[in-house]
C-alpha cells in the first residue's frame, strides 16, 4: 500500500549518463549516451525497506506505439514467470531477465528499434545470419519465453564470467539448431568439434566470436568464445569452458 512506502523516486533515465560520466573517463563516457538515453522514458518508484534490503516498486512511462525506446519493443507482449534464477550459482553478481509471450514477434520489434536507433546492431545480426547460413525463423523456433544474462563474480573485472540462459520450447530442436550452427562454423573455420562430457552433460564449443552479442545485441557481448550445455528446459551458454564445468558442480552441490 502506498501509505506503507518510505519514500518515492522519480528517475529521468535520459539524465543518468550525465551522472555516470562523473565516475568514468575516456571513451567509456560516450557509451552511456548510446545505451541509456534510448532505454526508456520517465520511471517512478515507491521505496520500502526490510531489514538490510531495499525495494523499488514502480512503473515506467513511454509513448504508446513508439520505437524510440528499447522498452517499447515489449508492447503487445505479456510478461512471463522468471524461472532461470533457479539455475544461477550463488556467485552471481548481476542478472537481467527478458520475458515475452512470443520470441519471434519480440525480435521483429527489436529489429525495428535497431533500424531507427542502432543500425550497426542490425547489420551485425544480418552479417551473422548470412555468414553462417542461418534461417532466422527456423533458428528462433525452439526459443521459449525467457532469456537471461548473468555476470558472475570473478577476479578479472575486465573479463568477467558470463552466462546466457535461453528457455527452450523443444530440447531436441534446440540441440539440433545449435549443433547445425556449430557444424557450419567449424567448416568455415576449418575447425573440429570441441566438446567434453562432464557430470552427465555434454559441453560443446560454438566457434563464433561474440555469437550472443551478434544475434541479440551489444548488451550480450562478452563471449569471445561460447560453450553450451542443457539443464532442464534451459540452454546455458557460457564464455568459458571451465565456467560451465564449475556451474554444473555448483548446481549439483545446490550452491544456487
Can you describe what's shown?
The protein has 256 residues and is an alpha+beta fold. 32% of the residues lie in helices and 27% in strands. It is built from 8 helices and 10 strands. The strands form 2 sheets. It has a 7-stranded antiparallel sheet, sandwiched between helices. Helix 3 crosses helix 4. The chain is globular, with a radius of gyration of 20 Å.
Brief write-up:
With 256 residues, the chain is α+β, with helices and mostly antiparallel strands. It is built from 8 helices and 10 strands.
Distinctive features:
256 residues, 8 helices, seven-stranded antiparallel sheet, three-stranded antiparallel sheet, 10 strands
Helix-strand blueprint:
Layout: E1 7-12, H1 16-20, H2 28-36, E2 42-50, E3 53-61, E4 92-99, H3 103-117, H4 119-131, H5 136-140, E5 143-152, E6 162-168, H6 171-188, E7 195-198, E8 201-206, H7 211-216, E9 226-231, E10 234-238, H8 241-252
Antiparallel strand pairs: 1-2, 2-3, 4-5, 5-6, 6-10, 7-8, 8-9, 9-10
Unreliable residue runs:
none
Q: Strand order across the biggest sheet?
A: 4-5-6-10-9-8-7
* Helix content bin: 25-40%
Query: How large, in whole angstroms, is the Cα Rg?
Result: 20 Å
Structural class: alpha+beta
Per DSSP, what share of the residues sits in E-state strands of 2 or more residues? 25-35%
In round numbers, the mean pLDDT is 86
Identify the overall geometry: globular
Number of helices: 8
Tally of extended strands?
A: 10
Amino acid at each position: 500500500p502506498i501509505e506503507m512506502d518510505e519514500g518515492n523516486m522519480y528517475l529521468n533515465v535520459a539524465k543518468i549518463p550525465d551522472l555516470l560520466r562523473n565516475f568514468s573517463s575516456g571513451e567509456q563516457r560516450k557509451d552511456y549516451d548510446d545505451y541509456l538515453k534510448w532505454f526508456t522514458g520517465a520511471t517512478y518508484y515507491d521505496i520500502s525497506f526490510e531489514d538490510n534490503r531495499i525495494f523499488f516498486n514502480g512503473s515506467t512511462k513511454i509513448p504508446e506505439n513508439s520505437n524510440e525506446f528499447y522498452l517499447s519493443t515489449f508492447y503487445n507482449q505479456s510478461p512471463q514467470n522468471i524461472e532461470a534464477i533457479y539455475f544461477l550459482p550463488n556467485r552471481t553478481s548481476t542478472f537481467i531477465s527478458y520475458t515475452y509471450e512470443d520470441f519471434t514477434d519480440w525480435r521483429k520489434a527489436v529489429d525495428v528499434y535497431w533500424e531507427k536507433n542502432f543500425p550497426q546492431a542490425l547489420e551485425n545480426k544480418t552479417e551473422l545470419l548470412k555468414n553462417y547460413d542461418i534461417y532466422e525463423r527456423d533458428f528462433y523456433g525452439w526459443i521459449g519465453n525467457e532469456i537471461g544474462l548473468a555476470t558472475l563474480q570473478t577476479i578479472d573485472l575486465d573479463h568477467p564470467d558470463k552466462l546466457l540462459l535461453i528457455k527452450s520450447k523443444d530440447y531436441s530442436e534446440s540441440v539440433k539448431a545449435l549443433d547445425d550452427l556449430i557444424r557450419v562454423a567449424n567448416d568455415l573455420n576449418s575447425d573440429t568439434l570441441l566438446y567434453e562430457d562432464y557430470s552427465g552433460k555434454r559441453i560443446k564449443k560454438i566457434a563464433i566470436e561474440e555469437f550472443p552479442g551478434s544475434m541479440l545485441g551489444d548488451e550480450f557481448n562478452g563471449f569471445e568464445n561460447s560453450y553450451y550445455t542443457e539443464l532442464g528446459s534451459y540452454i546455458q551458454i557460457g564464455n568459458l569452458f571451465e565456467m560451465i564445468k564449475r556451474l554444473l558442480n555448483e548446481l549439483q552441490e545446490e550452491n544456487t
